């Protein structure tokens, strides 16, 4: 299913789960976005060096709808909220995703992979920043460091 959708990305871990999003109005209730358990996959995009969680619902005949398309960032946290349910907030998508698994083992494995790819995203971000600093002039590097410090003071850093 994935091969024709994401030519430059490769799924690196997949599982099945019921997908939910937090109700945008109440911010309290979970709204199911899938009628049944669907495949939820971690993808790696080697061209952009990013990890994403993607889940599609639908069929080849009727078309697929992305019910999760979440880029993992170093500041994201996956929280196990019960034996078979976990969640994470995606500020870029302005939502909170929830996943209901068939077993505690599936939840634990997903959470383990989330942490692994979150750390990989952090390392990729650091490496990218180092590369930028190496190819920048001293004045550009100083400007970036000043900007980062201002962002940190204002609490706006990822």
Overview of the molecule:
One of its GO terms (molecular function) is G protein-coupled glutamate receptor binding. Residues 4-121 form the WH1 domain. Pfam families: WH1. Strand 1 (9-22) and strand 2 form a beta hairpin. The protein has helices at 104-135, 138-154, and strands spanning 9-22, 30-32, 38-45, 50-59, 63-71, 79-80, 85-90, 95-100. Strands 1, 2, 3, 4, 5, 6, 7 and 8 form an eight-stranded antiparallel sheet that branches. The chain has 158 residues and is α+β, with helices and mostly antiparallel strands.
Question: Briefly, what is this?
Answer:
The protein is an alpha+beta fold and 158 residues long. It is built from two helices and eight strands; from the N terminus they run ββββββββαα.
The CATH architecture term is: Roll
- Give the count of helical stretches: 2
The largest sheet, given as strand count, sense and whether it forms a barrel, is: 8 strands, antiparallel
**Beta-strand segment tally:** 8
CA radius of gyration is: 18 Å
Shape: globular
The name of the CATH topology is: PH-domain like
User: In percent, how much strand structure appears in the residues?
Assistant: 35-45%
Low-confidence segments:
1-5
In whole angstroms, the N-to-C terminal distance is 33 Å
CATH class: Mainly Beta
Mean pLDDT: 84
What would CATH call the homologous superfamily?
Answer: Pleckstrin-homology domain (PH domain)/Phosphotyrosine-binding domain (PTB)
